Amino acid sequence: MASLGWFSAMSMQTVALVKTLGQIEILFSLLISAFFFKEKLARSDHLGLFLVILAAIMVIWA
Questions:
Q1: How high is the pLDDT of residue 47?
Q2: In principle, which of 33, 36, 41, 61 could form an S-S bond with 45, CB 3.0–4.6 Å?
């Protein structure tokens, strides 16, 4: 099902936008682990989250 979803998304939009959505999944994974599992995020994790968000915004605006 997931492969069908990725294939459909890439046929409807540019690959850069679809792959950016995949990167946002990392953001949600880290936020869920921080809030639900009470894991402490390292300083480098915060920097990585910021860079992922910044890159996603740049791809969407490009």
A1: 92
A2: 41
Task: Please give the average per-residue pLDDT across 7-16, as a whole number.
Answer: 86
| CB-based contacts of 41, cutoff 8 Å, min separation 6 | 30, 34, 49
Give whole-number Cα distances, 54 to 1, 2, 19, 27, 61, in Å.
30, 26, 14, 12, 11
Report in angstroms the alpha-carbon separations of 59 from 14, 15, 55.
Answer: 11, 11, 6
Structure tokens at 32: 């869920």
Half-sphere exposure of 40 (CA within 13 A, CB side): 2
